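pls read this stuff:
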Amino acid sequence: MAVTREYRSFAEVRPALAGRLDRAATPCLFDRIDWFESLQNHCFAGQPTYILQVMQADAELWLFLLPSDARRLSALANWYSFVWRPIFLGSPAPPLQTELLEAAARHLLSRHAQIDFYPMQDEADRMLSAFRRAGWFAVRRPMGGRHLLNVKGRDFASYWAQRPGRLRSQVRRKGRGHPFVMEITGRLNDALWTDYQHVHARSWKDAEPGLSFLRELAERESAAGTLRMGFARRDDMPVATQIWTVENDIALIHKLSHDQAFDQASPGTLLSHAMFAHAIDTDRVSVIDYGTGDNPYKKDWMEDRATLHRIDCFNPRHASTWLPAARTAISALVG
């Protein structure tokens, strides 16, 4: 029989996990306790924490969630999250994983009116089925994609030769005379972060509430040796920057910024050319992941797309959910 436990702070969760979601035990960045805690502290500061643990025999399920009000929960994720999923410990077989998910869904049904999970990928079908069997009215909708490059043993020259002609032409034209100096570093310091902020403040991007989250991510990954931070400079002034991480043969592209005043010179594109070359020829990664979002420029660099899904769950015991449930179902039907 499954046993459930709720946690309201990461100070409670860490002793219960005893290092089992630390870097050494967890290959995926987005499943780690450090990721969730940092996201909570910097992007959802002041909001309560809700973490559910379900145990059966030696197997465990962990759901990292975020209450938006007394009766509604969401996945603890935002635009920095490439994926969110239920986390299993103890290597349970698929049938036991399903049992744990259903136990979690029944527990949540007794306490909450509405839950949404996004961005989901491989676990979406099983999550949907488990919540439906537990009594939720659940709807799955495709919502955006995750763009990937499977390197397939190519060197950068081979990869680059297969890029669209307009991209190769742009890099060739804009790179004449080497207008920018490219710098790629694996170590963060205060001076480099000041340069990053300089570019970010002049970027086309709006100011982000999570800039402190990026700083903590960069510091943590720098200490682990997985950070790849790139700069394009003109006359020693930073005009474009990117934050990547490289770990377990996978490169993750977390953030791009460039000084809007240099748009016509395409420093961001030229920096991407240098970053991809470094990831493929120096780090020798097998996969490059551009993260969520169907920005048109990603198709020029990447070759594969994985569909992301949002699952909305409505508790039919609460009349207040009936209308939003109907609207969500119609939205899923019409796309």
Remarks:
- The mean pLDDT is 95.
- The domain at 152-285 is CATH 3.40.630.30 (Aminopeptidase).
